[in-house]
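Before our next group meeting I need something from you. Please put the record directly below this note.
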Amino acid sequence: MSKLSQAVTFFESCDDPILLHELSGIVARRSKRFVAQAMARGGEDAIPQPAEAPPSDSAAKPQEARNLVESTADFAELQALARAIGQRTEALEITASANFPTGSRIKVPKRVTFPPRGEWVTGTVTTTGTMLRVELDSGKAWQGPPSLARLAGRA
């Protein structure tokens, strides 16, 4: 089995939105470099299509999958990893948003970071979906993924 296939299999069933969001940030930074290099070599035509990962019977371990995202030198493979990470992240955020219907009292980290750290603030959900919009008790607005939110009054 290829490392790419095993990593994609891991990401397709990963239930850790914090890990997925962290890796999305890594993919974004690495992709900028790959795109810049491809553009310098030959413009948009030099940007490869995502690699196709054949199905795998086994999933990579979390650290192995992370290592591949951080180290692959193949932009087509990075795109395949990004697609698997993005699709799973979207599915998890849609599922998480069901816990926070409009009008719910929630707490969220003041800053949208992965993993969440720092001060938490409370507010009321005004819009739900893959991104929550929250009117904070301070009167300010907050927008971020549902996976960062917690029901107010809970840890």
